[in-house]
Amino acid sequence: MAQTSPKRFPPLSLSRRDALRAVAAAAVLASCKATTDPSVAEAASTAATSRAVPDVTLRDACRAAGIKHGAARDHYIEPEDPMLDRLMERECDVVTPENGGKWAVFQPQEGQFDWSRFDASVELARRIGAQPNWHCALWQHMGMPDYMKLPQRRMAELGIGEKAYFSAEGTLSPDNYWQRFTDMVAAVKNRYGDIFYRIDVVNEVFFWETGRSHPQEQDRYGFRRGQWWVAAGGATKGPEWMDPFFHHIRKEFPSAKLVLNEFGIEIDEGWQQRKRAYLQTWLTDAVKRGVPIDGLGLQSHLMAGKPYDRDGMRGFLRAVDRLGLPVHITEFDVDERHLPRSWSRAEKDRAMAFLAAQYVGDIAGNAKLAELVWWHLRSDMNYIAREFPELNPHPSPYDAASKPLPIYEATVQALRNRNRA
C-alpha cells in the first residue's frame, strides 16, 4: 500500500439552504395527521413504490425530529457512482465509511498508511454538505491488521478458541497496545482534525453467541475475551478496561459524539436478552465513573422472520434514556433470509417494512434518537445483496434504480408516530 502525505480537512458545516429545508420539513410534518394504526407500514409500503422522489424525504423527517440522517459508503466497492452520490446528497447529513475508517484498511502494516478509502468518504461528506463519522477506532473481533492481533502461540495458553483474535504475524501485547493505539489516533487526528460527528470508539466488544462459541470466551461481565480485552487487562481490570480508550479519544476529538457500538440485542432469545443486560450494566456503571461516552450505537441489523423482543427493547431503551445517553442507529438494514422463500417480493417487503417501522418507532418513542444511518442507501450496495445476489434482497430503503422501497415510507411514518408504550 502506498504511503500518502498528511492531508488536513477543515471542519464541515451545513449550508443555509439545508437549515431552511429543516424548517420547511418541520412545517410539512407538523401538518401530517398522525396515526397509531398498526397497518400503517403496509399502507405506506404501497405508496412508497409509486414514486422515485418521496414527497417528504427521510432526511426531512429526521430533521424535523432533531435526528441526523445518513448512510455508509465505500469507494472501493463502488468507486464511481454519480447516481448514488446524488441520492446521498439529497438524503444525508452524515456519511460513514463502511470500511475506510477501519485500522486494517488505512494502516495495514505498522507505520504504513493508505488513506484513499477514508479520504473518499470524508471528501464525499464535504461535497454534499454532510459530516463524516469514524467507524471504528477499535474492533474487538475483526477489522484489525494481522500485526494488531495476538500471537498465534498464545491461543492454547489463553484457552480462547476464536481464531479471529490471533495471527502468526500477531505481536499485540500488554506492553505495546497503548502506544500503538495512541499513535493510530494521532495519525487520524493529524490527517482530518476534529471533524467527525460520531466516533465508534469500540465496536462489538460484547459476546456474540453462535453454534461455534465457547463459554470460556466470555468473561463474567459479558465481554468477548478478544485481543483488546487480553492486551488491555480485562481479566484484572474488570469492566473498566475500556475506559482509557474513551478518555483518550475525547482528549483528541472533543467535538465528536463518542459511542460504544454494538449489535445483536433485539431478538426475543435468551442470549440476546442476557447481552442486553450486560450492556445496560456497563453503560450504567460507565456513566457513574465519568467515562466520556455520548451515546449508545446500535448497529440494528434487523432479522425479519425472527421474534423481535419489543417489550424488552422498550424497557432497555427507557433505561438508556434515564442515563442521559442518546441512541445512534449506526448500521441500519433488514435481513430477509429468515423469511419463507415461497413469499413474493411484495410480501417480504411488507414484512420488512413493518419490522423497521416498529423498531425505529420504539427507539424514537422511548429514548432520544440522535442519528439514523443506513448500511447503504441502496439495497444493491448492502453486504447482504453482495453475498446473496440470487435473493435480489431489499435490506435498504432504496432499490438499485434509486427508487424508494416500502421500508422507506414505513420509516418516515414511524418517525411521525413515535411508538410510545
Q: What do these coordinates show?
A:
The protein has 421 residues and is of the alpha/beta class. The protein has one domain: Alpha-Beta Barrel (TIM Barrel). Helices cover 40% and strands 12% of the residues. It has 16 helices and 12 strands. Helix 2 (40-48) crosses helix 16 and helix 12 packs parallel to helix 13 (310-322). The longest helix has 22 residues, at 345-366. It is globular. Residues 1-6 and 9-50 have low confidence and may be disordered. One of its GO terms (molecular function) is endo-1,4-beta-xylanase activity. It comes from Azospirillum rugosum. It catalyses: Endohydrolysis of (1->4)-beta-D-xylosidic linkages in xylans. This is Beta-xylanase.
Comma- or semicolon-separated keywords:
alpha/beta, TIM Barrel, two-stranded parallel sheet, 16 helices, disordered N terminus
Structural category: alpha/beta
CATH uppermost class: Alpha Beta
Report the C-alpha radius of gyration, rounded. Answer: 21 Å
| Overall average pLDDT | 88
| CATH architecture label name | Alpha-Beta Barrel
- Poorly predicted regions: 1-6, 9-50
The CATH fourth-level homologous superfamily: Glycosidases
Percent helix range: 40-55%
Oligomer: single chain
Taken in chain order, the helices and strands follow as HHHEHEHHEEEHEHEHHHEHEEHEHEHH
Instruction: Please give the alpha-carbon distance between the first and last residues.
Output: 52 Å
Q: Main beta sheet, described?
A: 10 strands, parallel
What's the number of extended β-strand segments? 12
Integer count of domains: 1
Give the number of helices: 16
Overall 3D form: globular
Strand content: 5-15%
Remind me, CATH topology?
Answer: TIM Barrel
Pfam families: Glyco_hydro_10 (PF00331)
Protein name: Beta-xylanase
Domain GH10: 61-414
Catalytic activity: Endohydrolysis of (1->4)-beta-D-xylosidic linkages in xylans
